[in-house]
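Structure ticket #2291
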Amino acid sequence: MNIKSTKNFYFNLSKSSPWSHPLNPEILYPIKYFERLLLDLGWEDPSEWLNHWIYNTDNYISRDSWTKGTKSDWFWGLGLPLLTDIERHLSNERERSIIGISGLPGSGKTSLGRWIEAAANELGWPVSVISLDDFYLPANELDIAMSGNPWNVPRGIPGSHSIDLLIKTIDIWKKNGSLNAPIFEKFLRGGLGNRSGWKLTKPKLIIIEGWFLGCLTCNNLLLKKQIQENKFIELELNQEEVEYRKIIQDSLFKYQPIWKEINRVWHIKAINFNSTIDWKTEQEENLYKEKGASLKGKSLSSFIRMIQTAIPQEDLMKIPSDVVARINTRRELKWVGISKDEENSSDYK
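Resolution: structure written out below.
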């Protein structure tokens, strides 16, 4: 496969890089772990990696595809390293690959995926980005599947997706290269959401993003509730939530074959789990401004409660991953590197 050379594209890098002098004030994460990530991605010398991407200092690649207000730390700490990982996988002529992006609702994974897809398109790379959310059940099936949950949420929890369809879609793509994925619009049906069509692409690499992507099932759910939960947020689960958690774990088990198909997982991890309250609220407000419908009021607060309680927070924070990016409530990137380094690092605290 001939991957179009990166020298034809324009980046605003030299004045804002993690090695610039003076240091870019938007770069808050430790450089030593970032450099170890580059080493893991196949680049021993950061200057060579920098030269690989730099051509002109006036513009970013796919600049307009970033969400308004995104700082350069995301471009450096997540955007370019993820593109580097993608380039490495695309260089393998024989294999199709899947990269997963996991992160709490509103953490920025969808925005990152949108930029990656736009950047890959500019580079001429065969990459498609899909979301677990695209595989929500059709409206009638979704309403039935979600009936009786204690948060009264219309979607979002394990069990709200067409698992068989996603597995079949991946299988067909791996066999013939055609990816035919549904499109789910959350603003439809007054914010309840529904499918709006299908998208057919022929990528060599796909990225799948989702808020519990990669999450493993819990062996001792009761112990998690009694002991571990208070390490994150002091929430007292009511009996309905306790019982429904068992149903969610049964549903989560069905997602495990999908996780096994993923070659690499990048985890955008909140330093403070409570951050998702502000993130999800902002996300729904923006959806309302853009589409005129979203989750609001009690529906929104119930959805946030579901995020906080449906799956043990410890399990969501310890999703097995290859790369970890720690962000604070303002989504500033405080730490980025390979997972084994994150386990022993306290630099982001």
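Closing remark: The two ends are 43 Å apart (CA to CA).
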